[in-house]
Structure formats: C-alpha cells, structure tokens
C-alpha cells in the first residue's frame, strides 16, 4: 500500500492533519465485549497513547526559531501527532480506561530525542524523525494485526498509521532537497 502525498477524499488522506470529529462520533465502546478482548484493546491503546505523546514531544522540541520550510513542516507534524494523541486518549476513555500514570517517562524520552537532535542540526532532526516514524509504522502494523479492534477505532488507527508513513515521505524528501 502506498500512502504518499495523496490529496483525495479517502479516509487515509495524509494532507488532512486534523480530521473532523462530530458529537455523535463519541461512543461508549466496551459493552458486551469479552474481558480478554478488552484487555488486549486496553494494552494496545495505552501503547499508542504513550508513543504519540513521545512523537508530539519530539517534534515540539525539534522546532527552532525562524521561518524555514523545515520548521513549518515540524509544526505541521507536531499538530498531527497531537491529533493522534487526542485520538487515543478519547478511545481510552470511551472504553472506560484511563491513560498510563507513567506516561511522563515517554514525554521525557521524546524531549531527549527532540532536543538532542535539534542541537545536532537539520540532518539529525530528519534522520531521528525517520527512524522513530519507521518504528511507529511497524508498531502500528503489529497492533492492527494482533488486536480485534472495533471498526471505528480500527479506522482511526489506520489513518494515523498512514500519517506516519506520510511523515517518513516528507522527511525523506526534505533530506534529499537543499531546502533544509
Ligand atoms: Fe503519530
Ligand atoms: Fe508521525
């Protein structure tokens, strides 16, 4: 599957940074589910929620002053990761779960990756982002395959995974170009 820089009306259009969410889209989702399935969903959502916190923190600390194209795209990516973080926080509560109380550790790792790569320069920023996003795409694939999600949550996860693939494409393009 190739997500690339698709600009269309499909669900996985990566040019949509923050998809629209209506009041009727919010649901209580745990009803009539077996405890084993619920437990797997809980673990999956906690993993995604904490990883997205790390991702948005990395981009946040990679943003430097100035009006470069890299900064513009880092801000866009940060906003996209904030959307992902919001997606999984909402899903956690819809299922009756709560976010991990140790998620601050993921914030700190994100800060370290983001801040250190910014100190090392533009290429380090892009290479760090590509490395982290590649890990994320694999993680997403694993969780999509292993867990029996409800259809709506699955669609959100697929869109967010497509966004991560889109991020890799944008960073690779920037790394090749002279704009950075
Ligand atoms: Fe993300
Ligand atoms: Fe991402």
Taken from the alpha-carbon principal axes, the silhouette is elongated
Low-confidence stretches: none
What is the CA-atom radius of gyration, in angstroms? 17 Å
Query: Ions, cofactors, ligands: which are bound?
Result: fe (ii) ion
Helical/strand content category: mainly alpha
Helix proportion = 55-70%
Note the run of SSEs as H and E. HHHHH
Count of distinct strands:
0
Question: Strand portion, in percent?
Answer: under 5%
- Main sheet makeup: none
Quick structural gist:
With 180 residues, this protein is mainly α.
Overview of this protein structure:
The structure is a single chain. The chain is built from 5 helices and no strands. With 180 residues, the chain is mostly helical. The longest helix is centred in the first third of the chain and has 28 residues. The protein is elongated, with a radius of gyration of 17 Å. The protein binds fe (ii) ion (2 copies). One fe (ii) ion (FE2) binds next to helix 1, helix 2 and helix 5.
SSE blueprint and pairings:
Layout: H1 35-62, H2 69-94, H3 104-120, H4 122-146, H5 151-176
One fe (ii) ion binds next to helix 1, helix 2 and helix 5.
Keywords:
single chain, 180 residues
